[in-house]
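Hey, resending since the last one bounced:
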Amino acid sequence: YLSQDAYGHTCTRTGATPTGQGGWLFDGTDDYVSCTNLGGVALGTQDFTAMAWGKTNWADTSGSTLLIQRKTTGNDDQWALSESSAANGNTLQLSTYVGSYDILSNATAINDNVWHFCAGTRDATNLTVYLDGKQDGQAATASQNVQSTDIVNIGCMSPNAPTDLRWNGSI
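The structure tokens again:
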């Protein structure tokens, strides 16, 4: 395993290699980290924040690649912080899904091979994304009732995800 804390939360790394800068390099093909035993806490309609440091220069044109995500089997009940292809480059995206998506993408491209602090928050009325500590987008949300208590994956949607849903860069 990669780590285990005093509460029994375990994160297992598959394939990602150390960057030497305190992070891990994900190859965009088969690397990921899965975190289990997180206590079965469902977000419901509570406020939440997801954040990660990320670095990539990969120009994804196929959809989105996942920094971090928690989802159930299939596509029901999930939240994700990801990189998404857009007209102005690959941008940061926060999404929730319960039957339909609430999605917010920021305005600034992040695929510039520079480390970025990426964060997304959901409160009762808004999705907000932050890039390097500055608000970089906000949109109204219906504050979906996200009930997933499954594994949190870092670097992919799931271990069986196709390559267009895998992070290619460092986290």
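The two ends are 17 Å apart (CA to CA).

Sorry for the duplicate.
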